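Dear colleagues,

As part of the handover before I leave the project, I'm documenting each prediction I ran so the next person doesn't have to rerun anything. This entry is a single chain, and its sequence is reproduced below.
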Amino acid sequence: MSDDSPSAPKYKRVLLKLSGEALMGDQQFGVDPAVATRIAHDVGAIQALGVEIAIVIGGGNIFRGLAASARGMDRATADYMGMLATVINALALQDALEQQNVVTRVVTAIEMRAVAEPFIRRRAIRHLEKGRVVIFAAGTGNPYFTTDTAAALRAMEIKAEVILKGTKVDGVYTADPLLDPAATKYTSISYLEVLERQLKVMDATAISLCMDNKLPIVVFNLREAGSISRVVVGEPIGTTVSN
């Protein structure tokens, strides 16, 4: 495939960050199998282009550590519970991917060998090189760190070229577009602006980590079918956060 072909991927290795809520669909909590199938179909489509894909998934559709600690639960305990919720989501997504004939490995930061492999950096990279989709679960394995930070950390470790952050909106706005009709969208923005304006792209630790390592982030609407493929081939959708 020549590089000037419209369907030639812009990136060779990407890290896709999904929130737990992305799997809920229109439900109040849990996993909507139809949504998991659609995401799996989109991931399979970019894999078919020859792109190596790692995924980090949150757990907010099942349990949110920060919210539980605000209600009086010990923060570290609550965060560990949140990490376990991400493993449930990873297994659900793995099942959806394998039903699309996409070979997948779930790799966890907390050892639970009966359901997934422990995280070993070189082994994870080997899976990617062999064309397997790698789902990183259980965050960083540490309380007080979000799955956003886990996504930034794993992206560095596997030398991904970009973080693709799938959300409910089609980019980064001056304010929440669901609440403020006057909010305008950025096509591109710097890491520093995101931090200074406290825009809800990823948490500050994750943004700082990406800034220090010059790792771009593309924020796009995951709910639009085919949007992952459009980002990967370099279509100007969403918002790019970079230097």
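Residues 75-99 form the longest helix (25 residues). The chain has eight helices and eleven strands.

All the best with the project,
I.
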